[in-house]
């Protein structure tokens, strides 16, 4: 039966789901982000312990050295749930699609100076393997982290990293066909400049503390790598040398990084504010990893700029990262 | 190297290989075993991960584009549904019981699948299955969220929705689906894929989704049938993944066959027990019926199942153990479950009712050999009690099956007048089962199933100590959400609002 019900005004019984009223009161209607994120993970009366690690619980906050009284404090300031996430990315991919088309139509790659293309080949294309590691690392955090507001954006982040690896692959195919990807992989596997980074990522892939992985991959490594490669090498050096077309094709990465920083900084800040113990753990992780990854990235920077300039670049981005850490309440 | 070349035209397969497979590398600084520590312990042998055939070749840009399209449509429809009081379009408020059960029992399962697929999307040592599982992980959180959003509007007007998060972890009947998904997640990565990817998605999903979504469409629930249809293309991908993963395991090593067979036996039975709740929904909870459980089983269980297992026979896989027991139970389970839910209705966050005259006629027609003979007399007894001003309740607590966690209310496969009951002693403790199938599952892994959290014993232990009122508070069950439909606030409100509509 089809009936005309638009005109009826009826009184609501419940303002919201109880778990949301408990968290946020009943003054405001909960947002779709709140409905989609809070308390979705089972918390008690878990039936069986994992057969792969019987000392763990099926969802286990103790997998990390970081302790939170309530893991749902770690909300995502972007308020991404599946729908807002995909709508955002769909818009960005549309832009990227037209960017690729523009670069192709205008023949920007053909007209690009060889030294620019050499830097793209040597520095940018091997990064697709770094994104693959980041994809796995974020998938781990999503799988084993605690509380949906913390774990949910990690699966989005994992897929974003896959997407970036695919954009870099397209860029590689554009500048040098399959051979460009093969050469970049060869570099990744064998060339001296990339070995320290590859070794560090293989080490990180062995870490099972989900927050440690999150911090070292997303806050520290990405926090050095994106400013170094996309903000400086591409958007400054390459643009100055006639490589604006490359900057158009890495627009997704640049914007994505700026967007991710908001989320990272907010998570780190909330964790640090929770307790002195958390703060100490975070400082230890960040300090060690920041120094380590800075030295690891130095030879990579050296592929794009010579000698002292590379030193300056990496120490610059190191300072920038430590400033973010300070702003988040660490190292004070 | 010449870096200014006209790119070759790559075919889809080759392009997809470069966009995913080629991203991975063979680690040389660390051992693969350190990076993928859980990939061996189940005994599955994989010699060549690259033999994995990508079931769908979707790069992220295409994924974002297609999925965003679907999301836009979906939210446009449920927004309109909410604005227009679409809930008053459902046949009648009995229908709501079906979607309350869905929100309490199935949506949390979607969430578990999301987390489980993230784990296996990390643990597999090949980039092909990693990416396929990650995509399913992100799809599954989509399903959990779209379901919660669709139900959010119903929650504003009816009882039984608002405490689904607490009830997921505490109320007795949700431990049936919860223990199913916990069981899969606590297994190794390969078993998880057989459990969720193959048995659930491939063999059983049609029996869950088709009845639910057509039930929603038949009964005027636009919100639910929209998420069903919106999820359908995701499900198609998931089914392909399920089938690919089983073929991959079977083709990698003949030693894998008996392991996979054991899992198929287990998860087929676990899945069928879980689906008895869907059987009750189809035969009893839809005011307008789509088809009977028996009819659904004949199409989606028997026909599809036969074709599938004929196909798998060439690998040396036989149809699941206990298939015959399931077949024998089909004409019985929905009645047995619904009678159970009805007699324990004081403890459910949804309403139940006795079948009406026309319901009875339909049930007689659909179940000519069983309904009138075995179940109608029990319903008549309940109806008579109601007519005499009483209510048919069973305040005795049911004995739950240690494996499936349903009450032990099923009958012997070959004798519908005998309740089935099995017992196994393990390390000096007695465990109870509803069937040979569940006993068999337990006996394969007793050290796992003795850990099961059984909600009924929990009620008898501290701090509740059998206090029913305290239990209701602990599970957030308000009396208005429970009990007989005829006396419910939901019924009264729905009828009042509908009347308001027709007099306006």
From TrEMBL, chain A:
InterPro entries: Ferritin-like_SF, MP_mOase_hydro, Phenol_Hydrox, RNR-like. Keywords: Monooxygenase, Oxidoreductase. SUPFAM superfamilies: Ferritin-like. One of its GO terms (molecular function) is oxidoreductase activity, acting on paired donors, with incorporation or reduction of molecular oxygen, NAD(P)H as one donor, and incorporation of one atom of oxygen. It holds the Pfam family Phenol_Hydrox. The keyword Cell division does not apply. It comes from the Bacteria. The keyword Oxidoreductase applies. This is Phenol hydroxylase. It comes from Alteromonas lipolytica.
TrEMBL record, chain B:
Keywords: Monooxygenase, Oxidoreductase. It comes from the Bacteria. The keyword Oxidoreductase applies. Pfam families: Phenol_Hydrox, YHS. Residues 411-453 form the YHS domain. InterPro entries: Ferritin-like_SF, Phenol_Hydrox, RNR-like, YHS_dom. The keyword Oxidoreductase applies. One of its GO terms (molecular function) is monooxygenase activity. This is Phenol 2-monooxygenase. It comes from Alteromonas lipolytica.
